Description:
Blueprint: H1 2-25, H2 31-47, H3 58-83, H4 105-124, H5 128-140
Amino acid sequence: MGRVILGLLKGGVVGAALGALAFKLGVGGGIAAVVLYALVGGAAGLLCGRPPWRQDTFWTSALKGLFGLAVGGGLYFLARKLLGGAHASFTAALGAPDKPLAEIPLLLGPAIGAAWGIFVEVDDSAGPENRAANKGGAKAK
């Protein structure tokens, strides 16, 4: 449960930071949004789980980041299809214009970052050192 919360926080912070930057730059949809959410997925993939400097090889973090690029872009397309033109009234309190939810990076960025962050964090918790520790604990009993 702790890994899920940690992934939610790490991915959410990455998504919120990039989403706020994109909101300030006026990114809402189109190719710029695909690039934005791909960057959110890539950054969450790099930073969630074990950090790059604690991995056995650099390629582990690089692959999580590269796959995160595709996942971030894919989650954006999925959100556009599922949410369509759905609006929410609370977005005006955030200072966001009255746009569909999928075009507001302040909301969708943290959601995509948190979703990918949770997956990477939980996946990284099942690393070889944890499996070895579990086997050793079972033998001690």
